[in-house]
Amino acid sequence: MPRGGARIGAGRKPKPRPVNVLPARVLAHPSSVAPPSTSAPIEVEEFDAPDDLLHDERMIWLRQAPYAFKKGTLTRASALSFERYCKVVVLERNEAKSSAMGGPNHRGLLRQINAYELQFMLTPAGKPLLEPVQQPQQDADEEFFGGGSVAGR
């Protein structure tokens, strides 16, 4: 072999494989087994707001918590984070009432609120999770002929 080793791309080219056929070793691999279904209904534990929330913060909790409970994102483990969310919303409202509205502090609070709302699924993000309702299909002839049948004329 000359100096420098084999050339890149030299040698016999591999035979093309059909795209839709997987090798047997891939089909038999344990990771190819489907994961368990997660569509089973979840037991939702609803609980009251913490006692140390102020009145405005408690109002945010009472208004937003049912949606987070319904999505399954507000649990006992995430309650502290949801409490912080309520406090940040009140801070943002106070900042919006002041002359600093639109300033760097206000924009930072809005970013925090957006992150919390995405975390608790309180705002839509990406594709809708619900499947669209199928509308009954009309016959193309009915639309063209105005509902009357061709045979009945």
Characterise this structure.
The protein is mainly alpha-helical. The protein has a domain at about 55-125. It contains 5 helices and no strands. The chain has helices spanning about 25, 55-70, 80-95, 105-120, 140-145. α3 runs antiparallel to α4 (about 105-120).
Provide a short characterization of the protein structure.
By secondary structure, the chain is mostly helical. 41% of the residues lie in helices and 0% in strands.
Rg computed from alpha carbons, rounded to a whole number of angstroms: 29 Å
Low-confidence stretches: none
How would you characterize the largest beta sheet? none
Mean of all residue-level pLDDT scores: 79
Give the strand tally. 0
List the secondary-structure elements in sequence, H or E. Answer: HHHHH
What count of helical segments does DSSP give?
A: 5
- Level of helix content? 40-55%
Distance between the termini: 87 Å
Q: Which descriptor suits the 3D outline?
A: extended
Strand content: under 5%
| Structural class designation | mainly alpha
Key structural traits:
0% strand, 41% helix, single chain, mainly alpha, 153 residues
SSE order and pairing:
Layout lengths: L23 H4 L27 H17 L7 H19 L6 H16 L20 H6 L8
